C-alpha cells in the first residue's frame, strides 16, 4: 500500500462538516435525535465493539475527517460514549482492496447507526479523489493541472472540492461569489465581452475576471480588455495551440492563465496539455465520478 498522500491543501471546514453530517443523519434517522429501529432493537446500548473501515477496491482515499464527526453526533443523539477513531491511512493516499483505513472502537449501537452515513460521505469523496488522480497522473510532467468546476452535488461542494485536492487536482472557484466568470449569456446581457468585463470591474473591483472564449477573436478581445483568465471552450487541439501562441505573444509577459474546457477525455489529456494551456477543467470529476467501494466490518464485540 502506498500511503504517501497528495497534499490536499486546506482542511475541510469544521463548521461545514458539522452542518453536513447533521443534515445527513436527519435524512437517515429522522429529525434529531432520530432512531434506528433495527439497531436499537437488536443491540444492547452497553455493548462495545471494534469495527474496521476497509477498502473494497483500489483507489485514493478522501473524506476521513467526517468519520469522527458522524460518530460523535450519533453518540450525542443516543446519549452514549463517543467511539475512538484510529486513522491508519491519510487522505490523499493510494489504497488497495483489503486495506484497513481506520479502526473504530466504542458502543456497537453508535458504530452501526453511523455506518451508512459515514460510508456515503467517505465513499463519495474517495471516488472523486480516485477519478481526479487519474487525470493528475495523465498530466504529470506536462506543466498543466486539472481543475474542477461548480458541477457539484448540492450541499456537498466543500467535500467534493476537498476530494479533488486529495486526488492531486486544483480547485477553480468555490462559487459565484469569489471569482467573476463571463460566459456567453453574460456577453449577450452586457452587449459585448468588453461591456461585461468593464461592468464587473466597476461593481466588484476586488475579484479576478475570467472570460469564456469559443474563438480566437473572442480570446483576443477578452485579453485586450484585461481579463485575468481565459476559458478556451470546446476548441480543437489545433485551435487551442494557435490561441495559446497568439495570447502569449500579446500578453507582454503579464501571463494570463489559460484553461481548456469542454469535451475533454483522459486519452486527450496529454495532447491538450501540450498546446501550452495552464489548466484543463473537467466537470466530470464531481458530476460523474463513481464511488470508491468502502465497507465497515464489525470484527469484535464485548457485551
Give me some keywords for this one:
303 residues; alpha/beta; six-stranded parallel sheet; four-stranded antiparallel sheet; Aldehyde Oxidoreductase, domain 3; 11 helices; 2 domains; TIM Barrel; elongated
Detailed description of the structure:
The protein is of the alpha/beta class and 303 residues long. It folds into two domains: 14-137 and 289-302, Quinolinate phosphoribosyl transferase, N-terminal domain (Aldehyde Oxidoreductase, domain 3, Alpha-Beta Complex); 141-287, Aldolase class I (TIM Barrel, Alpha-Beta Barrel). 42% of the residues lie in helices and 19% in strands. The chain has eleven helices and twelve strands. It has helices at residues 14-29, 37-42, 65-78, 108-139, 157-166, 184-190, 193-203, 216-224, 237-250, 269-273, 284-287; strands at residues 48-55, 59-60, 84-87, 94-95, 100-107, 145-147, 180-182, 209-213, 229-233, 257-261, 279-281, 294-302. It has a six-stranded parallel sheet. It has a four-stranded antiparallel sheet with strand order 3-5-1-12, covered by helices on one side. Strand 10, helix 10 (269-273) and strand 11 (279-281) form a beta-alpha-beta unit. Helix 4 packs across helix 5 (157-166). The longest helix is centred in the middle third of the chain and has 32 residues, at 108-139. The radius of gyration is 23 Å and the shape is elongated.
Amino acid at each position: 500500500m502506498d500511503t504517501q498522500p497528495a497534499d490536499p491543501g486546506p482542511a475541510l471546514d469544521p463548521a461545514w462538516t458539522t452542518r453536513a453530517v447533521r443534515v445527513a443523519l436527519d435524512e437517515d434517522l429522522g429529525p434529531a435525535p432520530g432512531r434506528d429501529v433495527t439497531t436499537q432493537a437488536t443491540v444492547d446500548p452497553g455493548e462495545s465493539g471494534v469495527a474496521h473501515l476497509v477498502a473494497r477496491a483500489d483507489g485514493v482515499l478522501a473524506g476521513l475527517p467526517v468519520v469522527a464527526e458522524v460518530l460523535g453526533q450519533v453518540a450525542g443523539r443516543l446519549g452514549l460514549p463517543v467511539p475512538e477513531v484510529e486513522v491508519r491511512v491519510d487522505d490523499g493516499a493510494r489504497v488497495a482492496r483489503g486495506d484497513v483505513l481506520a479502526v473504530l472502537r466504542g458502543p456497537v449501537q453508535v458504530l452501526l447507526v453511523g455506518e451508512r452515513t459515514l460510508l456515503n460521505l467517505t465513499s463519495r469523496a474517495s471516488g472523486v479523489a480516485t477519478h481526479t488522480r487519474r487525470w493528475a497522473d495523465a498530466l504529470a510532467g506536462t506543466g498543466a493541472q486539472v481543475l474542477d468546476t461548480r458541477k457539484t452535488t448540492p450541499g456537498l461542494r466543500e467535500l467534493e472540492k476537498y476530494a479533488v485536492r486529495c486526488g492531486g487536482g486544483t480547485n477553480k472557484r468555490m462559487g459565484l461569489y469569489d471569482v467573476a466568470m463571463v460566459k456567453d449569456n453574460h456577453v449577450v446581457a452586457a452587449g459585448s465581452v468588453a461591456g461585461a468585463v468593464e461592468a464587473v470591474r466597476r461593481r466588484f473591483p476586488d475579484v479576478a475576471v475570467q472570460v469564456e472564449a469559443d474563438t480566437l477573436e473572442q480570446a483576443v478581445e477578452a485579453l485586450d480588455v484585461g481579463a485575468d483568465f481565459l476559458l478556451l471552450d470546446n476548441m480543437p487541439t489545433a485551435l487551442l495551440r494557435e490561441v495559446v501562441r497568439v495570447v502569449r505573444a500579446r500578453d507582454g509577459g503579464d501571463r494570463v492563465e489559460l484553461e481548456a474546457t469542454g469535451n475533454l477525455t483522459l486519452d486527450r489529456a496529454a495532447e491538450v496539455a501540450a498546446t501550452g494551456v495552464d489548466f484543463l477543467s473537467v466537470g466530470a470529476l464531481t458530476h460523474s465520478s463513481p464511488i470508491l467501494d468502502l465497507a465497515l466490518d464489525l470484527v469484535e464485540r464485548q457485551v
